[in-house]
């Protein structure tokens, strides 16, 4: 990306008055929108399983296709925002996100649900890069920008808290589609208020939007992630190999093309900055280690421990509270000590918390779960907030869109890979449990597809046989969750060590 960001008179006014904080309050609504949508899906999964009856593979696709698509399009949409205006893209994306949420709510088949989630990914990709890029252009003072990024991250965590609680309440009183409709009022506020408060910013000489690069980015990301997902779930085969080769070839072509374009979608020279590259890598690996576990935790709380959706939402609150508090003070702590100590320390704390979950059982008491979730929230809040600040402060304002897109791509790609890898591990361990003798074949197949399917199948069997089937399914699910937690812990602890070296000498602007 070339040129210098256009700073309109409106942008100057917001940058020089308290109105910039009002603009921030609107920007974080977009983050809230995406965070709420991601968390309510986990709570709604058992109900979706019961109503739409997806297979285990379809259930994973419902969970991760959103991240697949959004990861493939973030760079392209970040570049589009630099060209047509980040505010404009944000508002258009908010309208689209709300409209597609309705399609999610009223999906009637697993295939339609997967399509709706994919379209939601397209809309989400227009929202996410715009928010951080606009923060970079509105807040010029480094300390104020750190606080703004902390609030941005805290709002994402608040969304993770609000989503389960509100979603749990809705699931107990309405049908599962209602959890997607809560996006509509947030979207409406964002569009109406944002149109007045948010200043426009864009690159005045952006060059053309290279469509071939857009296609290569999308094909490359989806190809690689799909190959990983299928290999983890079903082993290597011709289809997996073909998908991997296609994805890697597309990404290599994408990188080479960016190096030759005068106005690339992504300036590859950003990665020459060690702090930038280290922060991006830390984000990707951290969320990879967390995502698969988080996706299945709501199912554990509901289908293994028997909590209601609302209780499961409340049980997950400590993680969000910890992340909010840590996010708000992360910039100050990183300046007091150092970037690498805060990031590496936060990641190590998350890794140790995940290691504690390897002792998980059906009878595990909430005190242990609550402490683990609190530590995960605090560690992730410190890490993600500081790395976002490093990524944005490592590049000039005119490249804020590209930097934001890379940051969000790492997050979404890590989410997709985490659900694909760790989720497939949980599914693989789970599907191997032995059903009681005499169980009808169709019931056994349904039970092996998902834990939700086992709960439903058990209810149609004689009491003793149903209890035995459910006990075996729950035990296998917990075994898979323990293994996923152990692998996640190893990933997080290794990432902590890597961050300590990669972020050496890195400082936040004073």
UniProtKB/TrEMBL annotation:
The keyword Membrane belongs to this UniProt entry's keyword annotation: yes
Domain of life, per lineage: Bacteria
Membrane topology: Multi-pass membrane protein
Major facilitator superfamily (MFS) profile domain: residues covered: 23-507
Compartments where found: Cell membrane
Keyword RNA-binding: no
PANTHER family on file: MAJOR FACILITATOR SUPERFAMILY MULTIDRUG TRANSPORTER MFSC, METHYL VIOLOGEN RESISTANCE PROTEIN SMVA
Designated name of the protein: MFS transporter
């Amino acid at each position: 990306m070339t040129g210098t960001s256009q700073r309109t008179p409106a942008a100057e006014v917001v940058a020089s008055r308290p109105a910039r904080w009002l603009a921030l309050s609107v920007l974080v609504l977009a983050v809230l929108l995406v965070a709420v949508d991601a968390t309510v899906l986990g709570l709604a999964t058992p109900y979706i399983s019961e109503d739409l009856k997806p297979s285990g593979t379809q259930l994973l696709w419902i969970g991760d296709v959103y991240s697949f698509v959004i990861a493939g399009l973030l760079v392209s949409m970040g570049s589009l925002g630099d060209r047509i205006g980040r505010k404009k893209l944000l508002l258009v994306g908010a309208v689209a996100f709300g409209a597609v949420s309705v399609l999610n709510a009223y999906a009637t088949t697993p295939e339609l649900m997967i399509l709706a989630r994919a379209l939601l990914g397209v809309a989400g990709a227009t929202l996410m890069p715009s928010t951080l890029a606009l923060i970079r252009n509105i807040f010029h003072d480094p300390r104020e920008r750190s606080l703004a990024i902390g609030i941005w991250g805290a709002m994402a965590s608040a969304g993770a808290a609000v989503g389960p609680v509100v979603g749990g309440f809705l699931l107990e009183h309405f049908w599962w589609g209602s959890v997607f409709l809560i996006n509509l009022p947030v979207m409406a506020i964002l569009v109406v208020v944002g149109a007045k408060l948010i200043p426009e910013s864009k690159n005045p000489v952006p060059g053309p939007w290279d469509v071939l690069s857009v296609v290569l980015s999308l094909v490359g990301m989806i190809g690689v992630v799909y190959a990983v997902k299928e290999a983890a779930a079903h082993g290597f085969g011709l289809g997996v190999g073909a998908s991997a080769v296609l994805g890697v070839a597309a990404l290599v072509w994408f990188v080479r093309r960016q190096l030759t374009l005068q106005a690339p979608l992504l300036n590859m020279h950003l990665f020459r900055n060690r702090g930038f590259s280290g922060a991006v890598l830390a984000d990707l690996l951290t969320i990879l280690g967390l995502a698969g576990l988080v996706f299945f935790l709501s199912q554990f709380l509901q289908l293994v421990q028997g909590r209601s959706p609302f209780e499961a939402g409340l049980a997950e609150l400590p993680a969000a509270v910890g992340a909010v508090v840590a996010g708000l003070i992360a910039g100050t702590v990183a300046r007091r000590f150092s970037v690498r100590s805060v990031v590496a320390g936060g990641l190590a704390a998350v890794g140790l918390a995940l290691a504690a979950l390897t002792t998980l059982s059906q009878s595990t008491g909430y005190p242990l779960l609550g402490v683990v979730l609190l530590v995960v929230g605090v560690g992730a809040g410190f890490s993600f907030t500081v790395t976002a600040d490093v990524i944005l402060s490592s590049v000039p304002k005119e490249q804020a869109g590209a930097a934001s897109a890379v940051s969000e791509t790492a997050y979404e790609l890590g989410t997709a890979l985490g659900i694909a890898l760790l989720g497939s591990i949980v599914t693989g361990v789970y599907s191997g449990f032995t059903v009681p003798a005499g169980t009808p074949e169709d019931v056994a197949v349904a039970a092996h597809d998902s834990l939700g399917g086992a709960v439903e199948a058990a209810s149609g069997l004689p009491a003793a046989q149903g209890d035995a089937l459910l006990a075996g399914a729950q035990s296998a699910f917990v075994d898979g969750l323990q293994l996923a937690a152990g692998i996640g812990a190893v990933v997080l602890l290794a990432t902590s060590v890597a961050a300590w070296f990669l972020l050496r000498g890195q400082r936040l602007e004073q």
